[in-house]
Amino acid sequence: MMKKNTDVLIIGAGLSGLMAAAKAADSGKKVLLVAKGMGALGLSSGCIDLWGYSLDHPEEICQDPVQEIIKMVAAQKDHPYAKVWDVLEESLSFFQQICSQNGLAYEVAEKGNWLLPTALGTVRPTYLAPAGMAARELPRAKNILVMGFQGLKDFYPEVLTTNLKNNMNLPADCQLTTLMLDLGKIELSPNNLAYLLEKDEVLQRLVSQIKPHLAEEMVILMPPVLGERGHTKVLLNLVESLGVQVYEVTNIPPSLPGQRLQQALLHHLKKQSVEIILGCTVIGTTVLGEHCTEVLAEGSGKNLTIAAKSIILATGSFLGGGMEAQPGKVIETVFHLPIKVLDEKWSAKEFLSLEGHPFSKFGIEVNNHLQPVNSQGEVVIKNIRVIGANLAGANYPIEKCGNGVALATGYKAGKLVGEV
Ligand SMILES: Cc1cc2nc3c(=O)[nH]c(=O)nc-3n(C[C@H](O)[C@H](O)[C@H](O)COP(=O)(O)OP(=O)(O)OC[C@H]3O[C@@H](n4cnc5c(N)ncnc54)[C@H](O)[C@@H]3O)c2cc1C
Predict the structure, then answer these.
(1) How far is the CA of 287 from the centre of ligand 1 (A)?
(2) The pTM is what?
(3) pLDDT averaged over 10-residue windows placed end to end, the chain, 420 residues
(4) Which residues are CB-contacts of 37 (< 8 A; sequence separation ≥ 6)?
(5) Are residues 182 and 230 in the same domain?
(6) Given 11, 76, 125, 288, which residue has the most CB atoms within 10 angstroms?
(7) 293: domain range?
């Protein structure tokens, strides 16, 4: 049995765990991160959603997510944002700073939320967008060219243009056209196309097919396939060769923008000397009194005991593996912490209800220091902080706050353990 000793142990490598690790390492702590898998980030759009819709009119997109969160927190003290309100702004700046240091710039809109097109031509509100998606000129564009690729499934330019006309407030004289590019491959996945486009000769073949279709004040939209590791270089190269703005739009998972963010954060953590063990599942814990003294983890058939002063539980919800539903009950899988089940009914009758499903709000309740509490508000284990999707009270699919909550709670936990 291998033994490890660290200041801070983080369990989970989703956005919340990666943020917590970055902030704790920034505070000078020795940090070890273990995770059984990579979490939801690689499946997500790569955008940071803070808050999407109006509280008073849930069918309307909200322009200013911060103002909406202020209103919501005043009414719902048990929402995760209520516990991290004090650091929300600094957590967003910290995130932008470490991403840009690692070659992935994120941008805020001129006011509040970006309204960005999706592959289906719907409009998606989000707060921080990767520079390659932040289509600032779109609302004023005279010409929009939507490009697809022969052989690439799940991206159909005509669907995007037809729906975008109805969903986005475009200038009345804006022309929308489509173009199918042919790179001579029969079937393409987003990842192998992205890899191909990192080769200069392939990118230039693409440029020569687009050039005859360029027009005045044009914006080009395309699926998120502009490079895996060298994304920023591929994008700049394309923009310079064409002389017009080119943007990727969000598409269904798996998503390269989410994977790029994951890679940028992992790269940052390695530079900060954070030890990362992936493919490693926490399977047992030793709790003496109100403290966890050790956890037992298993990876590649080998066991590992880890002693840590502070532990951050970033195991996600049902999808990440942090919570499990069993007949009549929900359990937290690592420490068996109390779970707040907010309703007798776990799901709503209507699948696409604007109220969402109650099970999305199930999770662990915490105090303002992100320590887990029981139904009387008493701290259950003192040296644990809980972050991200396994917190009670948020309904991310409806509120559009998943990555915002993960980012801010991860940052605060990292900051708090840095002070211990
Ligand atoms: C398909 C999809 C798309 C999404 N798109 C968006 C989006 O575009 N914008 C947005 O803002 N939000 C989006 N969300 C929501 C958002 O991604 C999540 O709310 C947020 O990223 C959750 O992060 P997390 O770190 O809490 O958990 P997760 O990302 O779920 O990570 C949990 C981690 O814990 C690990 N783990 C679990 N149990 C153990 C154990 N016992 N031992 C070791 N490791 C363990 C997992 O392997 C994983 O690494 C999306 C979610 C999904 C599912």
Answers:
(1) 26
(2) 0.96
(3) 95 98 98 96 95 92 94 94 97 98 95 94 96 94 96 93 94 95 85 94 96 95 94 95 96 91 97 97 96 95 95 95 91 95 77 78 95 96 98 92 98 96
(4) 13, 278, 279, 320, 321
(5) yes
(6) 11
(7) 2-100+259-419
